[in-house]
Amino acid sequence: MMKFTHGERAAAAVAARRLCLGAVVGLLPAAGPVDAASVFRYVDDAGVTEYAADPPADGRDYQVVEVDAELPDAAVLAAQRRRDALLSGAAAVEDELAADKRERAQAVQAARAELAAARKKLREAQAVKDGDWQNLANGRRHLQPAYFDRVAAARAAERAARDALAVARRAH
């Protein structure tokens, strides 16, 4: 699966939709037979030969040309195959974009779960246990360095999980 940036994904989706719409609209006239039509051929002031559905209004000389507008069956089938290929290609791009969006949403959910677990471990690490105390000769006691190390490690893990969630949200 190709990886896109957010801007590339949006541009690809817009391009795919435009391509499909253009293909469908462009192939609509080719979808069925059209009767023969009269076309008027004339030369304008610049010497350019032009074809129009109506005779020139200024009284120029023109020729009536009969045009068979019906496409051969092979051309219609080829146009339909091209249209179908474009539509399936656009559908594949849409499917890929949807799968990429699902992956990003799952990454955010996983990061949230990791953050919740890290916060729970931090609360557990901050809870003072009987073995965390060190008794002094003067009758006082204080927390051992192992307690502070355990809390610092849990805070670092919670901070890393928070940062990972922020990265996942930015990618989403």
Total discrete domains: 2
* Spatial strand arrangement across the major sheet: 2-1-3
Element order: H for helix, E for strand = HEEEHEEH
Number of strand segments? 5
Low-confidence stretches: 20-35
Strand content: 5-15%
What is the overall shape? rod-shaped
What structural class is derived from the secondary structure elements?
Answer: alpha+beta
Helix content: 55-70%
Mean pLDDT: 82
Task: Please outline the helices and strands.
Layout: H1 6-27, E1 37-43, E2 49-52, E3 63-67, H2 73-126, E4 133-135, E5 141-143, H3 145-171
Antiparallel strand pairs: 1-2, 1-3, 4-5
Helix pairs in contact: 1-2, 2-3
How does this structure look, described?
The protein is an alpha+beta fold. It has 2 domains: 6-34 and 70-171; 35-69, no CATH class. It has helices at 6-27, 73-126, 145-171; strands at residues 37-43, 49-52, 63-67, 133-135, 141-143. The protein has a 3-stranded antiparallel sheet, with no helix packed on it. It has a two-stranded antiparallel sheet with strand order 4-5. α2 packs antiparallel against α3 (145-171). The longest helix is centred in the middle third of the chain and has 54 residues, at 73-126. The protein starts with 5 loop residues before the first helix and ends with a helix.
What labels describe this entry?
single chain, about 170 residues, alpha+beta, three-stranded antiparallel sheet, two-stranded antiparallel sheet, about 15% strand
Q: How do you describe this structure in short?
A:
The chain has 172 residues and is an alpha+beta fold. It has helices at 6-27, 73-126, 145-171, and strands at 37-43, 49-52, 63-67, 133-135, 141-143. Helix content is 60%, strand content 13%.
